[in-house]
Structures are given as C-alpha cells and as structure tokens.
Amino acid sequence: MKDFIKFTLATVVGIIISSVVLFLIAIGMVAGMMSLDEGETIVSDNSVFCLDLDGVVAERAIDDPLSFFGVDDAMQTYGLDDITSSIKKAAKEDKIKGIYLTIGALAASPATLEEIRDALVGFKETGKFVVAYADNYSQGGYYVASAADEVLLNPRGAITWLGMSSQFVSYKGLLDKLGVEMQVFKVGTYKSAVEPFVLDKMSDANREQVKAFTSSIWDTFLSDISASRDVSIEQLNAYADRGIAMEQATSFVDCGFVDSLAYRTDMTEYLKTKVGIDEDDDLETLSLAAMINYHSNVPKDKSGNVVAVYYAEGDIDDTKAKDRIGARRVINDLKRLRKDENVKAVVLRVNSPGGSAFGSEQIWKEIEDIKAEKPVVVSMGGYAASGGYYISCNADYIFAQPTTLTGSIGIFGMVPDMGGLYDKVGLSFETVSTNKFGGVMSLDRPMTQEEKALMQRSVNDGYELFVMRCAEGRKMMPEAIKAIAEGRVWTGKMAKDLGLVDELGGLDEAIAKAKELAEIDDCTLVSYPAKPSVLDNVLGALPSGYASLLGDDEVGRMVKDLRWLYELDETDPVQARMPFYVEIQ
Description:
By secondary structure, this protein is α/β, with parallel strands linked by helices. Among the domains are: 47-162 and 243-292, 2-enoyl-CoA Hydratase, Chain A, domain 1 (Alpha-Beta Complex); 306-534 and 573-577, 2-enoyl-CoA Hydratase, Chain A, domain 1 (Alpha-Beta Complex). Helix content is 42%, strand content 18%. The protein contains 22 helices and 22 strands.
C-alpha cells in the first residue's frame, strides 16, 4: 500500500510538472507567433474598409494569447483607439472608396458608441460612402449604423428598438441567507453604490437619478438618429412604444429605420456597384487588422513635440496593478511624463467608475504637479464618475461625450459583519487587543456605536475633501458643488450645464485643446502606458483572470457581478465610486 501511494503521488507530481513545462513551451510558441512582423498593409485601388463590429469595445484592446489554446470563447475585444484611427486613415487614403460597416453583438458604453459614430460622420465628410449591414441590430449597434449613407437589414432580421433601461440587482436576500450584514457609511442622498447590499429595491432618490440619466442618453440617441434618418423624434418614440422590435423586417423599411433588405451573401455584389467595378472583378477589402497595420498615409512629425495620451481605465485602487487604475503605478507613469521635456501636454483619457478614495487623492496630487509645468486635458470615456471624476476635476480643461456617466461626487464605506456566516459554518473568533479600538475592522462581529461613529466621521472627512478638490478644480464655491454632488450621477450633457465639464466632445477634441494650451501646432501623439506584452497577458490571465473567460450570458454576468465577494479583503473600506456595475440597455 505504501509503495502504491508513493507511486501515485509521483505520477501526480510528474503530470503537474509536465503540464507546466508544456504550458510554458506553448507560451513561447504563442509569443513567437504574435511577434512576427506581418509587414506593411498594401492598399489596392477601389478598396473597401470592412469594419466588422461583433464584440466588446474597450478603450484599448490587448491581445488574448489564451485564444490560441481554444480556452477563450468569449466575444472578441476591439480597441476604440484602433477603430477610430483606422477610420481616419481610411478617410485620407484615396484608394479606399468607402466603409462597409457590419454590426453583430456589439457591446460598448453609449459614450464609446458616440465616439465611433462621430468618426464615421467625419469619414462621410470626405464624400466617400458608408454602408451598414446587420442580420439583427442591437439598439446601440443601430445607433452607430444610423450614421451610414445606407442602412441594410436581413429580410428575417429586426432592430432592438425599445428605449433605454437600467436594471437594479439586489444582493440583500443572498447576504441574509449567507448570514452577512453590510454595515454602511455614506455621504450623499444619491450615493447608491451601497443600495444593492442593504435594500431589496431602489430608493426613490436612486430611481430619480437613473431615470434622469437614462432619459438624457435616450434623448441623445433620438436626436442623432432623427437627424441622420430624417425621422422625427416623436415618431421614433412612438415606434418604440408600439413594440416595433417584434415586427417583421419590412416594418423597419416602411418606418425609415433602414433603406432596404438584403441577405449578407448579396452584399459583395452590392458593394461592387458602390465602388464601380464589374461583377467579374474581385472586390478589394481591408479588415480592421489590416487598417491597424497600415501606416503609409500617416504624416511623420519632425517638431520633436509630444502630446501624451494616458489611458486611465478601470477601478481605482492604491496598488501597482496593471489591469486597473493602480494609483502607485499611474503616479509613477505620470511623473515620468511630467519630467520628460519633449512632452508638451498630457491628455488623460479617463474611463472609470471610481474606487479607492485614497488612491484617487494620490492621483489628484500628481495631476496638480503636472499642471504646474504643462497643460493637462481630460477626455472622459464611458465613465468618469466618483473617483473617476476625482482624478479629472483639477485638469485645465475637461471634455465629455453627451452620454458619458460622470459626477457621483460622494463617499461611502462598507464593512461586512460576517458573524452569521461564520456561525453557519462553525467558525468562532476571539480577539485580544491592547487598546479600545484594536479590533475595529474585525469581520466576525457587528461594529460598536463608537466604532461606527469613527467610520462615519472618516467618510464625512473624505466627502468634504472631495468637494474641496472639485471646487478648486472647477473654480466654484464648495456650496455650489454640494448642490450638485450628494453622489448624484450625471450624463456629460447634464454635467456641462452644471459646470462639471467644459465642453462636449471626444478624444480628438481633447487633443486639439491640449495642443492649443501648449501653444504648439505640430506634435507626435504617444499613448501611455505601453500595452502589455504577450507574456504579461498570459500571466495576467492566471489564475484570477479565469473569471474573464466567462461568456456574456446570464450566468456569466451574474458571476462577474458577484466578484465583490472575493475582492472584499483587497478593497479599501472607504470608496469614491458610482453604483458598482451600471448596465444600460
């Protein structure tokens, strides 16, 4: 028996070691394949840029080496920077006659959709065509496609046209069953990030703000689509209310949503007629990957001036993390930009719902230091709320898209009492401390009234500091900031009217403003931080990254939404962030 156990253990160890070795060899192979130079893309006469949007759009895409092993079957991720820069390159290349836009399961924030749509509108100004096609259009996908000269739909397809909605998910019932009670401390009537943990339905204040910002986003969609498709806003609303999404495809032609119906297999011949080539000739097409690799018409700047575009995306914490806004890493990066004499201005691209109040304050300080030497302009993406607004508020100039979610100036703290859960599983704790508040953050018991008072005071102090930072940055009185704070979320359009942002626009407008403030005409744009290497991506995906391999079905979304359960021990108890995961449909 003893020999059998030894043999079995040796076999298991051997399998593990072999698996690790094979995995490392595979990593090397993937790194080699992905580092091959594919060479410059050559553009032929009468080409069409085929922009296929069927996946998730992030600020910047990173290569997913695990897909080489067949591990990741999730939707493809595109970089917004790659999409918009490719559209601009296509606009400048005379050999490219138009864009064929195909829409699939497109997942992106409303502000990201605006950025893509604006780029397409700019492309059309060159006189080239944009044709859009989909078997089925999501609401956001149709918003982008509506900018096209012609919109086509599969004869058996439909357009999801229902109006805006945002769903509230409560974890209170689950926590009650687990025996976990969340002890909440907050400032701000509208600071609703804590509500899923303590309420089983939305508060009146939260319902008010969600109704306001979803209506604002819907108004932007209606206005833009109405102008492009020549259908009145009143009609667009009426079609949503009658349930046109469930009607036959011919209804979308009759109501002006699309121009005609066609099968995907017919589109190649149709595009040939648009380009003006014979049926027997091959249609020259360029994919997004090809356009990313095309540089011939990109002018080379010789001024030596650099405008740095720094991407700050994700939750904020006080770490050196690369997969979020790790304050210590970001500060080091920004410090290098501050000291680089070639960098004449910094554009901070913020896409964050917030996070650690402490980490946000540290980044705020570095932005203040940069401003003393060179201009800082903020470009807000889908989110720049709470901590995301904290790190933006002191910029020299702030841009937001009309549908950006921002504001949420408020602070909260959450400390779980897990005593009930520990009782259920048979765990008990006893704390020995030398002083009165030695075990103040113990999770095995409820906090005392004195401990709660200390925590609330800390949250109050954080809120006052947040308000002061906003008031100084926006050159407003603290009372004026408090009147629009209270944790309330605003869209970019609403925030401009309130003075929280300076102008509506995207990254291009922010870059132009940075050049103006730096008093330079020519420059080279350099993006920071550098995109991670293939090896970084592989190592970063293991083991915690396995959560990202979940699909976008209901189960996958639920598991992702519950990630706070296993992040509790890493989370700063005092947070400046908006509701954890706002999903607008």
